[in-house]
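Possible regression after last week's pipeline update?

I re-ran a chain I had predicted before the update to compare outputs. Posting the input and the new output here so someone can diff against the archived version. Not blocking, just want to make sure nothing changed silently.
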Amino acid sequence: MSEGESRLGVIVAERLTDRSCAEFASVLAAKESVPGGGGAAALVGALGVALGSMVGNFTTGKKRYADVEGDIQRMLADGERIRLRLLDLTEEDAAAFYPLSVAYGIPRDDPSRARVLEEATKGACAAPVEMMRQICSAIELLEEMGEKGSKMLLSDVGCGALLCRAALEAASLNVFVNTKTLADRAFAEATEAECDEMLATYIPRAEACAAAVMSHIRG
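New output (post-update):
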């Protein structure tokens, strides 16, 4: 095992999301393979949905919003599930990189290299695709929270929508960088088509959500 692989194994063994913000940013900036853009995208998405949950937590129990209390409670439960799933995906993205890094290290004249590399590359697509699905759900939640949550915290809904918009596109880059190298073009094209549909649908929705907040604030 190389020194780089050894360091990578240590990083993957630890939960990146259990580190402080400063530690996570430090290892992200370091000459290390993980975390990278995928892990950062998942974390940003988790922060985006967390802002929606904050709005919900300030809204719940308020007499003014009694008629939507049930909806707020449902959104809080959904937001918690999405946030925790995105944090797990930060770890899954890092773990998926390890077999890919090992596959790239196989000598080019090894007959098993192409097969192992193909399988590892497909595996590396899984986490960022799932990130995108979760972030799309987060955007839906933020849209609803913008309609039903406390108007005193509407700016946080807008901030969450913009973070999720960035996270969605960032996660997609981590899919496309892998699908472009795959020999299995049917798998690659199906994966890219799903991602393209999510981008086409949810980037405009996130932008519209943020724009509605800006319009409300600035008049």
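Follow-up from reviewer: compared with the archived run. Residues 3-218 form a domain with the Four Helix Bundle (Hemerythrin (Met), subunit A) fold (CATH 1.20.120.680). Marking as no regression found.
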